[in-house]
Amino acid sequence: MNDKLKVGILGGTGFVGQRFITLLENHPFFEVAAIAASPRSAGKTYEEAVKNRWKLNVPIPDSVKDIQVKNVHEVHEISNEVDFVFCAVDMPKAEIKELEENYAKAEVPVISNNSAHRMSPDVPMVIPEINSDHLKIIESQKKRLGTKYGFIAVKPNCSIQSYVPPLHALKEFEPENVVVSTYQAISGAGKTFRDWPEMSDNVIPFISGEEEKSEKEPLKIWGEIQGDGIVNASSPNISTQCIRVPVSDGHLATVFVTFKYKPSKEQILERWASYSGKPQELGLPSAPKQFLKYMTEDDRPQTNLDRDYEKGMGITIGRLREDTIFDYKFVCLSHNTLRGAAGGGLLTAELLKTEGYLVSREIKKAGLSASL
Fold it and tell me: Which top-rank group of organisms is this from (predicted)?
């Protein structure tokens, strides 16, 4: 008997949606049951819908080629076919917010790659190794939405995935001031070099909205639940610059940090080497065995060589040294469409299932009937 949960992918024809499709192939917990996109793709098979638009260097899985794409706004129809959905739609923020709440109110949990609900106080924004305890706020969110099973959980912006985990491992030393520059791949904009030839031999020192997200979102991740919401942390002070560089995948960051209690270099390296979180404790399928890896070579991590560390789900760090203005500086790297997008969303879903937040339609129907 197949007891895998049935998944819908909203925005399944886009770059992140395609990543979800490939990551879910032969997944032990989940299987793709529905794919939804804009009305112009609705009614086509998935293979037809992504013809000439498939952006990955692996083939479309055979298991999804003949799935008929649905209109993402057909909430009732899709809800009858799935246990939960991943959301990676490309729409105005207000429309995404409404769409995700419509699915949640239809008792379909939403794990979102979008920013629309990231700063909603009762929506957990999760890096599973760091703030899995924030999932507790889901119960408050359900009360607001009037649901028994439906809720929204989000993953943070891909730009923070490289530098927040290494800083979090050092939280006991109380980082006070952090300056970060991120060098972000074009896939973060949903592009390949074929789509965006202007990026060849070019650097663009601006990514709309990225710096605000990079400075504010870590404070929610480091916040705490108070009452019916998550209250952001008040420190550290974070200043960022986000730069688009001619790289296909991988976001690299340079970090400068001052601590209240300055650690030794040996203490920092020990904390990075030993750090793990709930996904490692539970042995979740997508969890990296070693979350943080320090590289001793002077010229590492390199985007091309190291972005696929732990199948793109781990963080690599290098060049730790004392600074003339700050206490320390270092470089770190994450894969933006794996750890930073679809892979991070999938790991969050695995955690939610293991913790009992994701259940089958049969269990929902039985539970909802019993409550009437």
Answer: Bacteria
